[in-house]
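Example for tutorial group B:
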C-alpha cells in the first residue's frame, strides 16, 4: 500500500530526480529565436485569415437601403455595438470631493483681506498695511471737486430745461437759462443732437445743488450761445458765425454708372439719391442716360467761418448730351416739387385710386344691400379700414362738401373739362367748399355714414354731369408753375446755372485777431 521512499527515487519506470530537475529547467528556459519566428508567422497567418473572412462582409451598409435584409441587420448590429461601446466610455458624473477647507486664523484672514480687490476701491493699493485697524475711523464728510465739467446731448422730443436739470443744474438756474436762451432763439427750435457744454461750480452748502458757472452750445448753424455767471448773475453772450450760403454745384461726365461717377466727382450721397429720384420722375434712368452724358447737380450748401459745412436738399438736377440740355429740373414751391425749364412738372397718367383698398362692388346694376331691390349702382365701392385717408384723384375745386343724404358725408370735386368726381360715406371731411385741392391731397377719411353697411368709400365719376364707370377713365395729372411766378422761376434757374462748379462755398473770413506788442526783449524784432 505504501511505497518506500527509495523505490520512488530508484524504482523501475521512474525518472531519476536529476533528470526531472533538468527537464523542468529546460521547460522554463526562454524559447529560442526560431521558435519566436514560427510563433510570429502563425499569428500573422491567423490575422490575415481573419481579415479575409471579415472583408467578405459589409459591416457598415447604408441603413436606408435593403431594409430587412441580412446585410441591413448586420449594419444595425454594427450601429448598436458601436453605440454601446461609446456609452461604455461615458464619463462618470458623480460628485468629486474637494479638498478640505484650509483653517484660517485671524492673522491669516487679515492678510488675505488686505490683498483682495476691495482695498483698490478705497483709493489705495493692495498690501498688508491695507487692512483697517482700530485706528481707522470713517470721515464725517468727503471733500468734493471744486468744479465739474460735463457735456450733454439734446434728445429727440426732449426739452432744453429738462436736459439741464438731468445734468445737475438746479431748477432755478435751468429756468433762468431757458429764459435767456428764449430771448435769442426758440428753445423748441434747437435741433435734436445738439451738444451742450456745462460747467458747475462749488456747492454753497452740502445739501445745496451746484451753481451753474458756464454753459455753451451751437443754437443754430450761424449762432453760438454762451451763458456765464458774473457778479450780476447769469448773462447771455450770443456769438454770430459768418456763413457762406452759396449752393454747391457739381458737374461731371457719366461713366459706367451715374452713381459712381457722381461720387467720384465729390457729390454727397444724399444729394445723389435725391438727384436720381427726381430724374426717375421725368426720365427713364435705364435708357435716357448713357455714358458720355454730363450730369449737373446743385444742392443747398452752407459753410461756416469755424470750418463746419452743412449739405441741404437738392435744388437743381440736369442732364446734358453733346452740349444740349436733355433735362433741367428746378425745385420750386413750398411742397418741394421739381419743374422743367418750361414750368411743367412731372406727369402721371393712369387709373388713380382714391383710397388704398380692394374693390367690393363694381359699376352697374345690383341688388341694394339695404333697400333690398335691384337698381343702378352709379359708382365703385372700395372696402377700406375705418379712418383710412381718401385722396383726390386730380387737381380740382371742391364744389360740394357736407351731408348728402344717403351718401352720408359727401365731397364733390370739379376737375374741369366737364369731369367731376364724388366721394361718399366719409367719417370726416377734410376740405371746405370752394377750396382748391391737388392730386393726392387728403380730402376726407373712410367711414360708414348714410346708407351703408360698413366702412367703405363710394367713388363716382361724372362726365358732363352723367355718371360713368370710374374704371373706364384714365387721368393725366400734371403740375405747372403759376403764371404769376413764372418770371421768378426762370430767374432762379438762371441764377443757379450761373454758379461755377467747384468744391462748394468758400470759407468766410473769420474776425481778425487783435495783435499785441511783445513785452519781452527776445520777442521784439531786431
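The residue assignment follows.
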Amino acid at each position: 500500500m505504501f511505497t518506500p521512499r527509495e523505490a520512488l527515487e530508484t524504482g523501475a519506470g521512474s525518472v531519476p530526480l536529476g533528470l526531472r530537475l533538468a527537464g523542468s529547467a529546460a521547460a522554463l528556459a526562454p524559447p529560442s529565436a526560431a521558435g519566436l519566428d514560427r510563433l510570429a508567422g502563425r499569428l500573422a497567418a491567423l490575422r490575415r485569415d481573419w481579415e479575409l473572412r471579415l472583408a467578405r462582409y459589409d459591416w457598415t451598409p447604408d441603413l436606408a437601403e435593403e431594409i430587412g435584409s441580412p446585410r441591413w441587420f448586420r449594419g444595425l448590429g454594427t450601429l448598436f455595438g458601436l453605440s454601446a461601446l461609446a456609452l461604455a466610455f461615458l464619463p462618470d458624473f458623480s460628485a468629486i470631493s474637494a479638498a478640505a477647507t484650509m483653517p484660517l486664523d485671524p492673522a491669516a484672514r487679515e492678510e488675505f483681506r488686505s490683498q483682495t480687490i476691495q482695498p483698490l476701491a478705497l483709493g489705495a493699493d493692495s498690501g498688508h498695511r491695507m487692512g483697517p485697524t482700530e485706528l481707522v475711523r470713517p470721515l464725517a464728510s468727503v471733500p468734493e471737486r471744486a468744479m465739474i465739467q460735463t457735456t450733454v446731448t439734446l434728445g429727440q422730443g426732449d426739452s432744453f430745461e429738462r436736459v439741464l436739470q438731468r445734468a445737475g443744474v438746479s431748477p432755478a438756474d435751468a429756468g433762468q437759462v431757458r429764459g435767456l436762451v428764449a430771448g435769442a432763439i426758440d428753445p423748441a427750435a434747437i435741433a435734436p443732437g445738439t451738444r451742450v457744454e456745462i460747467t458747475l461750480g462749488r456747492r454753497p452748502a452740502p445739501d445745496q445743488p451746484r451753481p451753474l458757472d458756464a454753459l455753451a452750445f451751437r443754437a443754430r448753424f450761424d449762432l453760438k450761445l454762451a451763458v456765464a455767471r458774473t457778479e450780476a448773475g447769469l448773462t447771455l453772450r450770443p456769438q454770430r458765425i459768418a456763413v457762406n450760403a452759396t449752393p454747391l454745384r457739381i458737374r461731371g461726365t457719366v461713366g459706367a454708372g451715374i452713381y459712381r461717377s457722381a461720387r467720384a466727382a465729390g457729390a454727397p450721397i444724399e444729394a445723389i439719391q435725391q438727384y436720381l429720384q427726381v430724374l426717375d420722375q421725368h426720365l427713364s434712368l435705364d435708357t435716357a442716360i448713357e455714358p458720355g452724358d454730363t450730369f449737373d447737380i446743385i444742392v443747398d450748401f452752407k459753410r461756416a467761418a469755424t470750418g463746419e459745412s452743412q449739405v441741404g436738399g437738392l435744388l437743381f438736377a440736369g442732364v446734358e448730351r453733346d452740349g444740349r440740355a436733355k433735362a433741367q429740373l428746378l425745385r420750386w414751391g413750398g411742397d418741394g416739387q421739381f419743374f422743367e425749364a418750361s414750368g411743367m412738372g412731372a406727369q402721371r397718367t393712369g387709373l388713380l385710386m382714391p383710397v388704398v383698398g380692394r374693390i367690393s362692388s363694381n359699376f352697374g346694376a345690383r341688388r341694394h344691400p339695404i333697400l333690398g331691390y335691384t337698381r343702378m349702382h352709379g359708382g365703385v365701392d372700395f372696402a377700406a379700414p375705418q379712418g383710412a385717408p381718401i385722396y383726390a384723384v386730380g387737381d380740382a375745386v371742391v364744389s360740394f362738401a357736407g351731408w348728402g343724404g344717403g351718401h352720408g358725408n359727401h365731397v364733390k370735386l370739379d376737375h374741369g373739362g366737364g369731369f367731376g368726381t364724388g366721394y361718399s360715406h366719409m367719417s370726416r371731411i377734410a376740405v371746405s367748399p370752394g377750396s382748391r385741392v391737388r392730386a393726392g391731397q387728403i380730402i376726407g377719411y373712410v367711414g360708414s355714414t348714410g346708407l351703408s353697411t360698413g366702412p367703405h368709400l363710394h367713388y363716382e365719376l361724372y362726365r358732363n354731369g352723367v355718371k360713368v364707370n370710374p374704371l373706364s377713365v384714365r387721368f393725366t395729372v400734371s403740375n405747372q408753375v403759376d403764371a404769376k411766378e413764372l418770371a421768378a422761376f426762370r430767374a432762379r434757374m438762371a441764377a443757379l446755372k450761373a454758379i461755377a462748379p467747384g468744391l462748394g462755398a468758400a470759407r468766410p473770413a473769420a474776425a481778425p485777431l487783435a495783435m499785441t506788442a511783445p513785452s519781452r526783449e527776445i520777442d521784439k524784432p531786431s
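The first helix runs from residue 5 to 10. Compare this with the pattern of hydrophobic and polar residues in the output above.
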